[in-house]
Amino acid sequence: MDDILLTKYLLNETNESESASVRSWLAAHPDNERKFVQLRRIWEASKAFGSRLEMDEEQAWDRFVQRRNAIEPARTRRLGANWFRYAAAVILLPLVMWGIYGLWDAQYGAPALMVYETDAYPQTDTLTDGSIVTLNSYATLHYAQEKRKQRVATLEEGEVFFNVKQDPARPFVVHSGQVKVTVLGTSFHVRRSGDETEVIVESGQVKVTGPKQDLKLSVGDRLLINTATQRMETGKVNDRLYQYYVDNRFVMDNTPLWRIVEVLNQAYRSDIQIANPAIRDLRLTTTFRRGELEDILQVIGETLRIEVQQEGSKFILK
């Protein structure tokens, strides 16, 4: 959705056709609604704090017009003042946001919320505290850094690998539904799927707080907890396949076929089925780069001497 059109809608200056287009976009996906709510909050906060900012709206607009007239040719100036007003609003919103955050944080210490989202491809990013996160495909993470208390990340969906920068004065907290993971400085994997959360510790220690129990996990520990059914499983992780989205490699070390299929189905959102129970525990030691699923399955079939059949979007292993 065009930011200029959203700004017009926010200012109640769209016509009926434009308003209908925005309403349709808002209804299309919850993420669109969240984006608009954030935009509206920023705008409302800018009015509330406007008297305390060095540059008010009128000054900002006058300065924008002066600069526009100085650098734009006459033909461009004939486009109309309203369009430039919306464009100026879009340009100034990020600046206003940071100005608001500075004033609000100085007085109340409230955190600035950052949103990290991925589509079909994993993404690695650095948080404002220096911690590094890798989001798998279709993951959503919110992050807010409270300067004097703690660092808070909320995993809305998907899976993330955290490499947390150590800061004993400000614990790093990850919320995954009703599950809370607290660390000082360590690396670990968190996956959330509805009410189910998986935590695997790569280095250091973490404290996991569930609805009824607290647990401490160390290197190699794995916890699977479902807050709806109250089911909790703990144990040791036996492979490094959970890291496939971090370095785009599937590392198999005497790994059983059922586990390989489990991870490939998750990674490719595919439907691979083992039709012959006798082959479930066949083991494989190799490393695949994350490429075409068909190519990986072909190599697995040839190596383990099993049959791989494709039926539409489904793969059958025999």
Taking all residues together, what is the mean pLDDT?
79
**What structural category do the secondary elements indicate?**
alpha+beta
Q: Helices and strands, in N-to-C order?
A: HHHHHHEEEEEEEEEEEEEHEHEEHEE
User: How helical, in percent, are the residues?
Assistant: 25-40%
Overall, the morphology is: globular
| Quantity of strands, as a count | 18
Question: How would you describe the overall organization of this protein?
Answer:
With about 325 residues, this protein is of the alpha+beta class. Helix content is about 35%, strand content about 35%. It is built from nine helices and 18 strands. Residues about 45-55, about 75-80 and about 100-110 have low confidence and may be disordered.
Quick overview of this protein structure:
The protein is α+β, with helices and mostly antiparallel strands. It has nine helices and 18 strands. It has helices at residues 3-10, 16-28, 30-48, 57-71, 74-77, 81-108, 244-247, 257-268, 293-304; strands at residues 113-117, 123-126, 132-135, 140-145, 151-163, 172-176, 179-183, 187-193, 196-203, 206-209, 214-217, 221-226, 231-236, 249-256, 271-274, 283-289, 308-311, 314-317.
